[in-house]
Design brief:
heterodimer; A: 186 residues; alpha/beta; 7 strands; 45% helix; B: 126 residues; six-stranded mixed β-sheet; 4 helices; 6 strands; 39% helix; 21% strand
């Protein structure tokens, strides 16, 4: 099944996403890594995530941009964990050369839709960055608006939509389907 | 009153327009540089912006919010939830954040129905 999970930082999104991807794996189990390291803090975060995945049986596919390319390198019948829309959009919108790609959201949306059309079992992770009392610059606001549009699109196409709330899960869509798989991860 | 809240860009206005079969002409769009009372429209959109306008110009907002509730008893009121970020350094934004929080609690008590939107999906809270 297709599962979308979001929520605030450190709420357990990645943990649940890993368990769910593993639970629905019959063959290949892929971790689609989207994060591009910018500094030592990122290196540490990436290493921590890699350590946490040790022994789970994930094949890691590095795809920080051009997300639809995973379809060339992976068996689309496998189980995918795609972590995260947030990092992918950021990489596409703000490439390292200092440019800004104003059509990044369109590109991510088209890649994501191709994947959702071809892959049956996938968990998509995003970040809920929409409830703070800040007035952002235009570019940041454009990024937030674009990510929210991608979230809504993915949530619309997924069977199950989850919100992680401090190690609890709120089921916004697909309660019945989710119940079946949740028994396996308890 | 019907209260719809949620984070930015979660589909609150689309939901209201769709559910109540309304259009652009039914919307009062609040602005953070206009502290005039939002009224006379079926949808009052982004009252958090109106509250920011109030906080910028007035020492107290309680009376204005009370008036708002009286004048908008039959409206669909839409508000961005701004309660879950880092405490802002700017004292004005801190006051804004707290006032929006208190206002949402007051509006929730007055509302017949309260809906939260998450990624375009509504949850009925009341």
């Amino acid at each position: 099944m297709k599962i979308f999970i979001s929520g605030g930082c450190k709420n357990g999104k990645s943990y649940y996403a890993q368990k769910l991807a593993k639970a629905q794996a019959a063959g290949e189990l892929y971790y689609v890594a989207t994060m591009k390291s910018a500094d030592s803090e990122d290196d540490e975060r990436i290493e921590r995530h890699q350590r946490e995945r040790d022994g789970w049986g994930f094949t890691t596919v590095e795809q920080p941009a051009d997300i639809e390319n995973i379809l060339h390198n992976c068996d689309s019948g496998g189980s995918f964990l795609f972590d995260s829309l947030t990092a992918l959009l950021s990489n596409e919108m703000f490439p390292m050369d200092g440019d800004i790609n104003v059509r990044a959201a369109e590109k991510v949306s088209s890649g994501l839709n191709r994947i959702l059309d071809e892959v049956e079992d996938i968990v998509i992770v995003s970040d809920y960055i929409y409830s703070d009392a800040m007035i952002y610059d235009e570019l940041t606001e454009q990024y937030r608006e674009s990510l929210a549009a991608l979230d809504r699109e993915a949530a619309g196409k997924c069977d199950v939509v989850l919100e992680a709330a401090y190690a609890n899960l709120i089921v916004h869509k697909g309660e019945e389907m989710f119940h079946g798989i949740y028994q396996k991860i308890l | 009153m019907i209260l719809i809240f949620g984070g930015a860009y979660q589909g609150k206005l689309d939901y209201a327009l769709d559910r109540f079969n309304l259009s652009e002409k039914d919307i009062f769009r609040c602005s953070d540089d206009n502290s005039d009372m939002p009224e006379n429209k079926k949808i009052i959109y982004e009252i958090d912006k109106w509250i920011l306008a109030l906080v910028k110009t007035e020492p107290g907002t309680t009376d204005a919010v009370k008036q708002f509730i009286i004048k908008n008893k039959d409206a669909v009121v839409i508000c961005n939830d701004i309660s879950s970020g880092v405490v802002p350094i700017d004292p004005l934004l801190r006051k804004w954040r707290e006032t929006v929080g208190r206002t949402l609690a007051a509006l929730s008590r007055e509302s017949d129905e309260v809906v939260r939107l998450f990624c375009g999906i509504p949850t009925m809270l009341k």
